């Protein structure tokens, strides 16, 4: 029986043929994307030189970024009762936060705050996608600062691209040197700003500028300065594309009602250039509203084309929205061809967030964490007490038929004010405290206070009895701590 020939265009295959058919070679066309095409950059090095853009969302982003930066540098200089309002004093193991002193044992409160902030971020993401990345992320804020400096020195995006291509000359060396010098100065100030949350700010800046800072303080300042210089000056969008974990998992929090920066393809396609006010020809040629000006790509900090659909690289900064609306205004088209829209918005479907499981779940998580924070704050004591028994002897018998037990009380004043405390021993049995019942502690001070508890041998049963030490604030009796321990007798 002759062999059947199998070709890609054969309508049928003779299944009765037992012989193995000849292999078929399928040629799939492959398109090689250069780094320039992938990033949207026109420079040989693949650097993204995005254009400056003005508009409502850019004004909002600039205002939010500026507020973040001002708070970052200004908060360490705020003082309350003569002490820096926010200071994480590692050497003293204290965290001062606007009049509240937190100690290592109070750091569960910080954990609750961080968890609540995370759920709050997830809750906002359900509504507006990655608006945190576009409007409040420090990486975005510092990147735009560095690009602003670069633009002032080297010119617009097109001029910066041309400067990248140009051969080295005196002018290019001068511009690059000035830019990197200002970048380095901004990085050094950022390093000082970060470390000022751990070392008193007024002392830190003076010591760094005069060269009197210690080796470790100087090292940490320069470490964070170098990190800032590399992240905001060189890596920029690479931090968002490859290093930030949030960009990788944020899409799982989206649903059909999440508003993200979106291109309305049904309205915009087919895209194509045209002259202004060419409405008649536009209908005849079946062109959409997109004039293919490519401005949405040129203003994007991460170099993507939003017209290709939802992409994890998009930081929702709204630059492409402002650029597109500016073009739509020139052509007298409706705005928001690119805008903050949800999938249901594009379909014209009405919806309610109250029916969204993510809305209810993240909202409930935020409320629960806020309740936990409130309960933790309410139960937090301003006094710390730790009772340690004398380990050398369980008890001592005196000549007058009494039993003594010795203890070491570790008492700490967790406030920022000098306090007076009253000591007491509580029990149903007749115990007496041999020590001064009033003790004065300075702000943040901890003392080891030895005390002796005495009882008549005939008035208490033998063996181990439970007693309770209490420490009470003299002026605020509601502030009290207590701890149980054992009293031993023959």
UniProtKB/TrEMBL annotation:
Keywords: 4Fe-4S, Electron transport, Iron, Iron-sulfur, Membrane, Metal-binding, Transmembrane, Transmembrane helix, Transport. The keyword Acetylation does not apply. The chain crosses the membrane at residues 67-87, 107-128, 181-201, 213-232, 359-377. It holds the Pfam family Fer4_5. Residues 1-20 are annotated as: Disordered. It comes from the Bacteria. It comes from Shewanella baltica (strain OS155 / ATCC BAA-1091). Residues 281-309, 313-334 form the 4Fe-4S ferredoxin-type domain. This is 4Fe-4S ferredoxin, iron-sulfur binding domain protein. Residues 1-19 have a biased composition (Polar residues). NCBIfam families: ccoG_rdxA_fixG. PANTHER family: FERREDOXIN-TYPE PROTEIN NAPH. GO terms for molecular function: 4 iron, 4 sulfur cluster binding; metal ion binding. One of its GO terms (cellular component) is plasma membrane.
